Amino acid sequence: MAWDLLFKSDIGLLSLFTICFIIAMAVWLARYAMKKMAEDERNARSDFVKKS
User: Fold this and answer.
1) Where does the sequence pass through the membrane (predicted)?
2) Mean pLDDT in runs of 10 for the chain (52 residues)?
3) Which of 3, 8, 12, 14 has the most C-beta neighbours closer than 10 Å?
4) Could you tell me the CA-to-CA distances from 22 to 10, 15, 25, 30, 38 in Å, in that order?
């Protein structure tokens, strides 16, 4: 019953799309943040070496 409603009705498909979009956005945001943190750490280390 619930699976039929999720996959066969308009509101169910919209809900499924929304759930998938939120999960994809969370994955992208986590990867972006990790990339920026690593970049910031590299910049901080290079600044520390230059000051020494």
Assistant:
1) 12-33
2) 94 97 99 97 82 63
3) 12
4) 18, 11, 5, 12, 24
